[in-house]
Structure formats: structure tokens, C-alpha cells
Protein: tRNA(Ile)-lysidine synthase
Organism: Shewanella atlantica
Amino acid sequence: MSKRTPVPDFDVSSLIADCVAKASVDSGSQLVLAYSGGVDSEVLALGLANFARDNPQYRYLLVHVHHGLSSNADAWAAHCQSQAAKYNLPIEIKRVEVKIGPRLSIEAQARNARYEAITSLMAAGDGLLTAHHLDDQLETVLLALKRGLGPKGLSAMGEVQTFDNNKQLLRPLLSISREQIESLAASQAIVHIEDESNQDSKFDRNFLRLEIIPKLKARWSSIAVTASRSAALCAQQQAVIDEEVSKRLPSYIVPVSQGNGTAFELSDLSEQDLNWQLLLLRGYIEYLGFAPLSQVQLEQALYQLLDAKPDAKIELRLGDTLIRRFRGRAYLSSVEAEHAERIAKSVFELDLTSLLSSASVRAGECVKAGNAETRLGFGVSELATLWVCSSAKSDRVRFPNTDEKVSVRFSVAGSTRCSPHNRQKGRELKKLWQEYGIPPWEREKVPFIFYNDVLVCAVGYWIEKAFICRDVSAGLSFKVVASN
């Protein structure tokens, strides 16, 4: 006589209801399910279908991401569409390209592509449901231990979390084991797909799932439950740390003297003990949205920022994070973003004749030249915008003469003699940069306007005295704005 499989003692629809209530998802918001078609997401999809019948106040969407990494990818997408029709839930198939290279993790690249594809279909306040379960939590804790992470990493996954512009991440199955899920699927004859890559032990999670966790469970049957408990305790302690850091951190964050962005004040930081120095620097890195650094990297950065000679040039590259020091402050930027913004050309020619002739300018007004702003691309994240302005309240550049060619230039020599309208005496450019407190790496990003080969203005800083409008006649005002 065959052994009868016990019916699982959990209801997926009720678990979803609990998560939605904890997340306080508003009526009219969308509940989106990351739908792979595997056994875990199929069980969650069936539960969502049951929940949807009783809760019409929400909108629903299944999202299947087609990575194109398997020869079965088309079949999986077709399966998900078929199942969605049975569940009476709308579905979106998102095709993505996964970057593959010798130094790239396929797991990480696929995960990032999947995340971007799914969240592109969500708005603030929407809820994203994933089928992570108790054994996934154990895998996450073990991977955090392997990476040497602290309480934040060991906190692993929460049942409800806020992310990305007030969206809600819901994991209704986080307290349910893989065995329970598979048992439920078998008892209800739920059809699901099998991803062959799940059997490849070269991937870390698969290695843990196939070779390590079964042995751990054979020795300690409740290890997934106890590991989840430890993760919850770490999350509790991390919440206290985060609250205290959030109170102290603002006093260390200062706006840059010119332009946008912030810097991290180091003079006060040196007065703290080492533990708080590390916590505050880590907090600032997180505040800026950069990837977290390891403890060794944090200690290395802290040593360089606080202990190196005052005149030493500090420039650390740690992954994609670039850390620099200037005048007792730390500046962080993205290596990849700076590379993307590197100026391809040093000079842009600009023909203003037709633009100015089409501008309708009246005294006391400041309008865009022509039907739209003229944008001079000098990078990816910033643009120079030309305005025609007749208001005497703003500083303006006189119009170019017919024989004067207008150009935008960068990386102007520091020895260039300048005569700013806002100071009495002229001075070399490099001295002005020091006076303005502009970090060396930011100086090459400042656009300069020239008429022929004569400097007219440094956009955002000054106008040369010889070119400033002295009366109420119309003039030009150049501004630097962030791109949309």
C-alpha cells in the first residue's frame, strides 16, 4: 500500500491577504506577480487567482520574463500564457537581453534584467509578489555568511519590504518550506515547468540547494526555521542601528559649494570611535544608492580619508564606487557613470543666427529661444540650456556680432586669465577654481562659452566683464540643467 501524501496545512490566498494587509496596499493599486512558471510561482499564482476573486478592489498582473537563455524559453512563455488564462489573470511577457561576459555573473545579470523588466510595469504603491519560501531564506543566509556580511546582510529577506519609490515587495510564502509547496502542487495537480539550469551546481544557489542544504536538513531538520529566526533577530538589531544612524548622518552630509550633489564631512567624523565611523560612512554610501562595500573596503577607505596626509591626492576605486577627498570632505561617484559622461569632444560650435531671429523677446521677459530650448550635449546626465533673456534682474551675455562664432568648450587651461563680472580684479582660472572650492575632477565638466577665441563666460559661475549686458537690452543666459 502506497504512502499517502499529506495535504499541506496552509492556504496561499490567506497568506497573500496577510501580506497585503501588512503592506497596507491601497485599493486600486496593482498586485504584480513575478511569474516564472516554476512550482513555487505556480502555487502562488493559483493562490493569487483565488485572492483576486474575493478582492476586486485591486488590479492584477502576472509578469513572465523571457531571458532567452534556454532553448525552452519560448515554451515556458507559452505555458505561462496558458496558465494565466486558466487563472483568469492578465499576463505580460517581457523579453530581455542578459549581458554575458567573462567577468559577469549570469545569475546577477539575469536577476537585474528581470527586476528592471518587472518594475517597469509598476507604479508607486503597487505590490510585487515573489514566491520566495523558507528554504530560499536559508540559502540567502548561507550566501550572506559566505560573503562575510553583517547584520544587514544576515537579515536576509523580509515578508514585507518597501523598495524603489514606495513600491511594496510581498513574500507570502516565506514561512512555508519547499516540501510543503511541492506537496500542495502534487495534491492539486498543478502543472509547472522545470528549468534545467536549476540542476547546474556551478551556480551558488543551486550548489546549496542540491548538495548542502539536504545534508543540513538530514542532520538538523528544523535548520531552515531556526535560520529564519536568526535572520529576523538580525533584522531587528539592524533596524535599531539604522534608526540611530539616520539621526546622526544628516549632520555629516553637506551640499557642494557649487552645483548639485553632496559631500561627506570628515572633520567631525574623525572625532567618533572607529565603529561609528564605519557605520556613518556605510550609511552615507547607502544614502547615495551605491552598492555596499565590504568591511575590509570600508576600513581601507576610512584609513585613506582620515589618516593620509592633508595634501595627498585620495582617489579610491572600490567596485563601481569612486571615493575622492578634497578639502576635508569625501566625494563619491560612480565609475561607470563618469565613464559614460566623459566628454567626447572639447569644442561644440553653435549657430545662433536662426535661433535668435525666431525668438520673440520683450522687455522684462525671459523666454526660451525659439520654440524649444537649445541643448548642447556635453555628457549624459547634464545639458547646457540656452535662454534668451531681457530682464535687467538677471546677469546676461551680450548677443554675438555677426562675425563672432559661438562655441562651447571644456577643460580650459588653468593659466587662462579671467575677468569675472562679480569680482573687482581678474585672476587665473586655476586660482578661481580654488576660490570657488571646485574639486579638480569637477572642473573639466564646466562649459565655457567663447565668441571666436575669446572667453565670454563660465556657465554657472561668471560672465566676463567685457561681455555682460549693462542695460535692459535682451541678452543671453546660459544654464546647466540635469537631463530628464
User: Anything to note?
Assistant: Residues 128 and 398 are 55 Å apart (CA to CA). The chain has three domains: 12-240, 256-339, 347-482.
